[in-house]
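Now for a concrete sample entry.
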Amino acid sequence: MFQMLGTPAIPSNSVPGRHVISGKTMGTRYSVVFYSELDFDAEALQRELQEAVDRVDEQMSPWKADSILCEINRMEPASWIDLPDETFEVCEAALLTCVESEGAFDPFVGDLVSAWGFGPETDAPDLSKAKQLQGDWNSRRREVEFDRKNRRLRRPATCRLDLCGIAKGYGVDCLSQVMHRWGLPNHLVSIDGELRASGRKAGGSGWQVALEAPEADVRREALRLEVSDVAIATSGTYRKIRNAGGRTVSHTMNPQSGAPVKNELLSVSVIAESCMTADAWATAYMVMGCEKALAHAQHAGLDAIFVVRTPLGAVDVLATDPELLAA
C-alpha cells in the first residue's frame, strides 16, 4: 500500500500553515494533511470529516449489523431495497467496473469472502461451503438487478453484497470533497494507505508518498512518488491472509474461480482521478494477473504499478509508465 511520508501522528504546528486531522473509521484510521494560512474552525472541520466517513461506514460495512449493506443482505430474495445516495453511487460504480472487468471485480462475493474465513462471522474457512459456491458463480451474479432510475437494487438468494473492494476508496473521495467545500484545496487524505492528493504543499512541491514493499511482517519503503491531483489505491496478497486446507490464502477473491487469488502478483497500485476508481481497479487487476491487467490499464489510460513474484522467486516491479519507477 501507499503511505504518506512525514505525517506526524498528532497535529503539528512545526511547519507554518501545516495542519493534520485524523480519526477512526472502517476499523482503521483516516488522516488529512493540509496547508492553509486562513483561519478556520478546526473542530467543525474535523466533525464534518468524521461525519463523511461515518456515513460510508454506517452504510457499507459488513461488520455493522445495522448497516445498509447488511440490510440488503438480509432482505428476502427478489425484494427491492431503496438505496441512499452514497450506497447508490458506490453500487453503480461497482457494477460498472464488474462489467468492464468481465467479472474480475465483483461486488457480490460476500458469500465467497465468508466461506474462506474473511467475513464478519468467523475467521475459520469452510472449504465445503466454498466448493459449493464455485460451480455456477457467474450465472448467479447475473441475476442481480440494479434499477438506476428508481435508485434501488435486488439480489438473488445466493449473492451477498460486499463493497470492501471499493468503499474505502470512496471514503477517501468523500474526505477530499469536504476539504474542497471548506476552500482547502491543498491536501493529502488517506484511509489505511488508500489516498488522494490535491493541490500542492507549501512552496509548490507535490506530495511525497511511498509504496510499501510487499512483506507481511515488516513495513519497508519500496518506491517513492511525488504526486498531485491524483488518487492511489493498492490491493495485495501479502497481508490479510489465512491458512485454508494447508495453504496460505489471501482475502482477495477471484469471482471466476470462486477461490482466493493465486497468481504472480503480490500487489497492484492504481493511479486514477478518483480513489473509488483506483480502489476497484486495483482489486480487479489482482484477479486478472499481471499480463492482462497491464494491457487493460494501458488501454484504459490508467497508471498502475505491479509488484510480481518471478518464477525464480525474485520480486520485480513493473509499471504502465516506466517514468513512475524512475521517480
User: Anything to note?
Assistant: The domain at 1-229 is CATH 3.10.520.10 (T-fold). The chain has one domain: 1-229.
